[in-house]
Specification:
- The protein has about 170 residues and is mainly α.
- The protein folds into 2 domains: about 110 residues, no CATH class; about 55 residues, no CATH class.
- Helices cover about 45% and strands about 10% of the residues.
Length: about 170
């Protein structure tokens, strides 16, 4: 539905994104931080909250702005070579398979060279492992704060103040 009316409303949407809210004022509207969260059952056990997978549905303009910021930051970091080649997460055309291939190749190369091989693996899937303050410091150290109208404010707002509403 949105795609069919996009030619008629594109100028209005761009005006909202550029001038009346986020990009020019460095403010991420609080209503854009509110998401509807729908619990989707993982199995037939409906008595435990851990048996549900939360699916967040953010407002359309919030998701659109997030995509714009992601694309700009991703292009910036790619041009600056800020993302290591061996990193597979959050990179296009990279996933766990490419990481496993990279790891297998490194282990086989080390084995063929007669080197000692050690591997320590951690599973952080159940923990929030992002230190938001450290992330902001790293973004600032990459001069992200001076590109595209100081979007660090928007990133800070997104990272630390997102509000979720639960629909049960």
């Amino acid at each position: 539905m949105i795609l069919s009316c996009l030619p008629q409303c594109l100028d209005f949407v761009l005006y909202i994104l550029n001038y009346s809210t986020s990009l020019s004022t460095n403010i991420f509207p609080s209503t854009w931080k509110q998401s509807v969260v729908i619990p989707i059952p993982k199995n037939n056990n409906f008595s435990s909250p851990s048996s549900f997978c939360p699916i967040s549905i953010p407002p359309f303009l919030s998701k659109l702005l997030e995509c714009i910021c992601f694309n700009q930051l991703n292009d910036f970091f790619r041009k600056c070579n800020a993302v290591p080649e061996c990193q597979s997460g959050f990179r296009g055309s990279h996933n766990t398979t490419t990481e496993l291939l990279h790891l297998s190749n490194a282990v086989l190369h080390s084995f063929d060279s007669g080197l000692l091989i050690s591997l320590i693996a951690f599973d952080f899937s159940k923990f929030n492992t992002i230190d938001h303050e450290l992330l902001l410091l790293k973004l600032h150290s990459c001069n992200v704060g001076i590109i595209e109208n100081n979007n660090v404010t928007i990133i800070y707002s997104l990272a630390l103040e997102k509000i979720l509403f639960y629909l049960i």
